[in-house]
Design goal:
single chain, FAD/NAD(P)-binding domain, Cholesterol Oxidase, domain 2, 2 domains, eight-stranded antiparallel beta sheet, 13 helices
Length: 538
């Protein structure tokens, strides 16, 4: 099979690229996705994330693990990634967050011309169909539905009130470039129409509505195994489907959109990257590029949790189960109620030191007990609050375990390898617990979990963090954009030293933005799609 563009990976970036490039009827586009189509009710119902996230049986989920982490007492971390059209946007908490405007200005300072806040804002707006309507910061005509939460729980309102009682600013919009404050997240969720209350993944927003385009071919259950080269030009992709090896050719470009863990893996499997990490596996070198798989950054996260007598949230018990059955009917009919929850309802971006020029921690207030990524369940009812350090100094790697393209990548975030990250986490945990111990939220508390108690020393906080912290699912940076020696792609996202090959996903972020990464990944794809259209304009 032969196409103009071959996109590898049908996640947030891949779905966006496929839809935008196939708008031109004069080009042909092929999208390869290793997972399935993702039409399950478990994915359309927001609360279904609790089923997909733990990764049992790798249902919709790659369910990767890290190598043992020295900074986490030798534990292997968990790295869930979506394995379905829509990628991680099909299994995440749906939170729509862009980060701080300074994050993008920092990209420009690192040599990424054209990626400042004002350059990116039009593409954020282009992607959005925001329930709040059109204004200076938001769009209302894009494919991605962005909604106010349908039915936030009373306990989440108590969290917001408790935070404001601690002198934190009440914010109604976390996406205007300055996100300091506390409030409610907006979510990628359909608002209005017959899909009201359903998850709006990138596939549901961009891809499903255009699947019948004659110039777009979507191939699912297709695991890419190698990029094919003629000299220094990428010309095709080898993949496996139903245990059969197949190939697809690209006349113009191949676009990798497999995410920060798998885009560098496929490059390395194809002989692109560091020779000392590729050749020992018996793989022939095509192009040496020092930055492939380097510069991995992720948000390390620590959770504080409480049991409660309040059953008006998510838990395991007879009362709550009965309510959940009623809630399912309500959601089916109206799109509202408990089934519509993103779980992480309450938001906060805070400074651990008032002298800072921007927030350095993020909180996610969750209407359930969170323990080991929902892989350990607790009877009864509870609530939790995540705290993460927004701009980690620790840097890790993604490399090959072996030459088998079916093997998982070797993921080493090197969490807490830089002491500054631990210091920020300790300060953030203290601030978060102070909010949780404030009225009216503290009245919900029945018992604090995991041995956290009053008057803990910094050494005790360090022990808790090293024993329980893990990712909150924002890996980036492993094919970084820039102009330095470790840059894998240039500011047009073309792989340096090769032709016919781009990377378009979170791996190109040179530094981790101060927030969740799904909305920025979609923005990156929107922006690059326009770049490609300009490059091939006739």
């Amino acid at each position: 099979m032969e196409f103009d563009f071959v996109i590898v990976g049908g996640g947030s970036a891949g779905s966006t690229m496929a839809a935008r490039l196939s708008e031109d009827p004069n080009v042909t586009v092929c999208l390869l996705e290793a997972g399935g189509k993702g039409a399950s009710i478990l994915l359309r119902a927001p609360v279904g994330a609790v089923v997909a996230l733990p990764g049992y049986g790798k249902l919709f989920n790659w369910a990767f693990k890290t190598v043992p982490q020295l900074g986490l007492n030798g534990r292997r971390g968990y790295q869930p990634r979506g394995r379905v059209l829509g990628g991680s946007s099909a299994i995440n908490a749906m939170l729509y967050v862009r980060g701080h405007k300074s994050d993008y200005e920092n990209w420009v300072a690192l040599g990424c011309d054209g990626w400042g806040w004002e350059d990116c804002l039009p593409y954020f707006k282009k992607s959005e169909n925001n329930e709040r309507g059109l204004d200076n910061f938001h769009g209302n005509n894009g494919p991605l539905h962005v909604s106010n939460q349908q039915s936030p729980r009373p306990i989440t309102h108590a969290f917001v009130t408790a935070a404001t009682a601690n002198q934190h600013y009440l914010r109604t919009d976390f996406n205007d470039g300055d996100n300091e404050g506390v409030g409610m997240y907006q979510v990628t969720q359909f608002h209005g129409g017959n899909k009201n209350g359903e998850r709006c993944s990138a596939a549901a927003a961009y891809l499903y509505p255009v699947m019948d385009r004659p110039n777009l071919t979507v191939i699912t259950k297709a695991r890419a195994t190698k990029i094919l080269f003629e000299g220094k030009r990428a010309v095709g992709v080898a993949y496996r489907q139903d245990k059969t090896s197949k190939t697809v050719s690209a006349n113009k470009e191949i676009i990798l959109a497999m995410g920060a863990l798998q885009s560098p893996q496929l490059l390395q499997l194809s002989g692109v990257g560091r020779a000392d990490e590729i050749m020992p596996h018996g793989i022939a070198m095509v192009h040496e590029l020092e930055g492939v798989g380097q510069n991995l950054q992720d948000h390390l996260d620590f959770t504080l949790s409480y049991k409660t007598s309040d059953t008006d949230n998510f838990g395991i018990g007879l009362t709550g189960t009965a309510r959940l059955m009623v809630a399912m009917l309500k959601w089916w009919r109206t799109g509202r109620g408990m089934i519509a929850t993103p779980f992480g309802e309450g938001a906060a971006f805070l400074k651990t030191d008032p002298s800072l020029d921007r927030p350095d921690i993020q909180l996610h207030f969750v209407i359930a007990v969170v323990d080991d990524h929902a892989r350990r369940l607790h009877l009864g009812y509870g609530y939790s609050c995540h705290v993460c350090a927004l701009r980690p100094h620790s840097r890790g790697t993604v490399t090959l375990q072996n030459a088998d393209p079916m093997a998982d990548p070797a993921i080493d975030p090197q969490f807490l390898s830089d002491r500054r990250d631990l210091d920020t986490m300790i300060k953030g945990a203290k601030m978060t617990r102070q909010i949780l111990q404030t009225e009216p939220l503290v009245s919900y508390a029945k018992r604090e979990l995991f041995g956290v108690k009053d008057h803990m020393t910094d050494a005790e906080w360090e022990c808790h963090i090293r024993a329980r912290a893990d990712t909150i699912y924002h890996p980036v940076g492993t094919c970084k954009m820039g102009i330095d020696d470790l840059a894998v792609v240039d500011p047009q996202l073309r792989v340096r030293g090769l032709t016919g090959l781009r990377v378009v996903d979170a791996s190109v972020m040179p530094t981790l933005i101060g927030g969740n990464t799904n909305a920025p990944t979609i923005m990156i794809a929107e922006k690059c799609a326009d770049m490609i259209k300009v490059d091939y304009a006739t």
